[in-house]
# Entry
Amino acid sequence: MARAPHDYYSWTLEQRRKFLGASSVDALCKTIIMKNSEYKEEYSNDPEYPRFIMIIVQYSKKLVSPNIAEVVKKHHSQVYKESPEK
# Structure
């Protein structure tokens, strides 16, 4: 683990890679917390119904929100299909 200097986020990905000792810029990731905009408090006791979702994305890739929403929907469909009591 390394403590980032104050100007770390102004560096290029290659400079960050060298500082962190990563094998390539493809190994550099960021974590994003996304809020479920359709969250309903009435389902708050359901552990499969999150208010927030953590996404880990490589810096070299683009985050596509509709794709993430689709993955979450597919997960929920599978969970509820396997556990109809939910």
